[in-house]
Amino acid sequence: MTTPLLELSGVHTHIGAYHILHGVDFTVPAGQVTMLLGRNGAGKSTTLRTIMGLWQASAGEVRFQGASLKGLATPDIAGRGIAYVPENMGIFTDLTVKENMVLAARSARHAGELDTQRLEWIFGLFPALKKFWLYPAGKLSGGQKQMLAVARAICEPRALILIDEPSKGLAPSIIHNLVSAFNELKRQQTTILLVEQNFMMAKALGDTVAVMDDGRVVHRGAMAELAEDEGLQQRLLGLSLGAHQ
Amino acid sequence: MSATTAPAAAAPAVAAVPKAAFDWRPLALLAALMVLALPAIGSAPTWVTLTVAGLAMGMIIFVIASGLTLVFGLMDVLNFGHGVFIALGAFMATTVMAGLAPWAGESAPAQIASVFAAMAVAMAVAGAVGWAFERVIVRPVYGLHLKQILITMGGMIVGEEIIKVVWGPLQIALPLPSALTGSWLLGDASIEKYRVLAALIGLAVFAALAFTLNRTKVGLLIRAGVQDREMVESLGYRIRQLFVGVFVAGSALAGLGGVMWGLYQQNVVPQIGGQVNVLIFIVIIIGGLGSTLGCFVGALLVGLMANYTGFLAPKVALFSNIGLMVAILLWRPQGLYPVTNR
After folding, report:
1. Rounded to whole angstroms, how far apart are CA atoms A9 and A30?
2. Which residue pairs, CB below 8 angstroms and at least 24 apart, start in B226-229?
3. Which of A107, A175, B46, B98, CA to CA, is 20 to 30 A from A115?
4. Identity of the residue in B3, B6, B224 whose CB atom sits nearest the CB atom of A95
């Protein structure tokens, strides 16, 4: 059993009067890609935001590398080595691609202090970023913005990367590029918690999976097992893999 | 992956797509306003005098408004109390310059030094009061626009009353030192010395802000924070500290602008902030909320418009800037240089 890097136990989150998460429990093993699946409104994005401290858990605990994140502000949580790619990508559209990258690299005061080797590796994953380096990020296409969002998350080594629905609204060819990039990250033993609606992408990338419904985790296990069990997919997600092939 | 530093990171070898083109149209509008005013005014020397006066007035308005646009843009705070820092700066100038007048005497360098000392003290005091204003008045109402309007207006009223307690309710003269009075003659055109100084200070403030915002990481954080505060925090930066810093800097700039405006009017009243408030809100709306360049161009447009219409049609002058704002918002509803997500 791989040591969990991240552990959520009995996490409840309220947003105003609404009770969104009802005791979420799951773990993210180190060096693996954990898929967080579920229908719309199941609480997946809320879970990521709660881990980042953007919404505070009203009960339960989030532990990262064995230490509780309770009460920590978002910058402190990020400072512990967690990168976050939100569903809306969080691109600073008025800034150039270069400026977005400089901001993401906390140790760099300007572009000259970016880790060149790592940057070249990122350009290898996402060549468009090199091409549009001095361009305002707002002018990029949706797929390129998503690449930039992911690139920001990996521009410095991070212990854990949280990514919220990276394939949303993207063309299949762009999704294919993203899958390739995530596979490369997997080979580098990067730990990723990936929220996805695209089951094919989940199947291609996931090592482990947690399925959410109505603010709870209703299934945990190996992604390969879920991918092979159409009945389980139908029951948990209301889909069959065959329909996607 | 080892950490290495090399200049290649700053300029990747493949740059097939050029840097995005700068939007010159708002600057062209500024130039067009100046060019169109020339035949309307009819006299080149008068046009030069009015244009320099308008640009100087615009620079002063820019100094006052630049802090507010950052506070508005970055912090999403509708600070209707900004005027109190303007008044505070102006009144501090009356005290400092009166105190230094015997020392300065008739020496031109000493007189100019006393003006800069007044500006430095005004900025320091306005910045310090701004820090307290943020902690006590603004912090409890982050994200609550209606309450922000009410409480910051309340703060301004209280601030004005405190100013009346300290300096009295009456108008106080803030005469220009003799070294800054009078004009230079450029042909038949008359260029007031103080307006040149005001324009130079305005340009220096603009250059400093432009450098900070575009060439430093703090500037990047401010620009990013204007667009998406949550994402800046998610990247690991404490935006609250940045908020406080920007609020203090904005208040200090208002204090500087108060000194400049007081010297421009050559007198100071406790209501000076309220009087200027309308102009600066027009400027930041015209410029695009949160945009320093937009604020700069907007302030120059407002300054020029006020001077041209004041000469050509004094009865229209009062409404000219409202008309300018309406026209610009019809052309660009988000302002001249809109900041995305605002």
Report:
1. 17
2. B226/A94, B226/B73, B226/B74, B226/B290, B226/B339, B226/B341, B226/B342, B227/A92, B227/A93, B227/A94, B227/A95, B227/B339, B227/B340, B227/B341, B227/B342, B228/A90, B228/A92, B228/B341, B229/B74
3. A175
4. B224
Are A8 and A21 contacting, i.e. CB atoms less than 8 angstroms apart?
no
From the list A74, A95, A133, the residue facing B220 with the nearest CB is A95
Q: Do A92 and B19 touch (CB under 8 A)?
A: no
Measured in residues, chain B has a length of: 342
**A15: contact with B, CB 8 A cutoff:** no
The residues in A 83-142 lying below 8 A from B, measured between CB atoms, are 84, 86, 90, 92-96, 98-99, 102-104, 106, 109-121, 123, 130-136, 138-139
- Helices assigned H by DSSP within chain A: 44-51, 74-79, 97-104, 116-125, 127-131, 142-154, 172-187, 199-205, 223-228, 230-237
Structure tokens at A189: 């033993």
Q: Does B7 touch chain A (CB under 8 A)?
A: yes
pLDDT digits (tens, 9 = 90+) for B61-120: 999 999 888 888 767 788 899 999 999 999 999 999 999 999 988 899 999 999 999 999
Tokens of A14: 């309220």
Q: Which of A54, A94, A104 sits opposite B223 (nearest CB)?
A: A94
> Is residue B223 within 8 angstroms of chain A, CB to CB?
yes
Query: Do residues A38 and A222 make contact, with C-beta atoms less than 8 angstroms apart?
Result: no
Q: Which residues of A touch B291 (CB under 8 A)?
A: none
pTM above 0.90, yes or no: no
> Which residues have a Cβ under 8 Å from the Cβ of B249 and sit 6 or more positions away?
B67, B70, B127
pLDDT tens track for B273-303: 888 888 888 999 999 988 889 999 999 999 9
Residues in a beta bridge with A13: A21, A57
State how far the Cα of A205 lies from the Cα of A197, in Å rounded to an integer: 13
- Answer for the pair A95, A152: CB distance below 8 angstroms, yes or no: no
CB-based burial of residue A3 (10 Å sphere; 0-12 exposed, 13-18 middle, 19+ buried)? exposed
Structure tokens at B221: 């954080």
Strands B267-268 and B172-173: antiparallel
How far is residue B245's CA from residue B239's CA, in Å, rounded to a whole number? Answer: 10
Q: Are A111 and B9 within 8 A, CB to CB?
A: yes
Q: Which residues of A, range 162-201, sit inside 8 Å of B by Cβ?
A: none
CB contact under 8 A, A75 and B2: no
Percentage of residues in chain B having pLDDT higher than 90: 67
Question: Quick one: which of B123, B114, B98 has its CA closest to B180?
Answer: B114
Question: Could you give the C-alpha distances from B302 to B17, B62, B80, in angstroms and in order?
Answer: 37, 10, 20
Report ipTM for this prediction. 0.91
B2 → closest Cβ in A75, A117, A136: A117
Q: Residues of A with CB below 8 A from B4's CB?
A: 115-117
For residues B285 and A7, give the distance between their C-alpha atoms in angstroms, rounded to a whole number.
Answer: 47
Residues of A in contact with B224 (CB under 8 A): 92, 95, 103
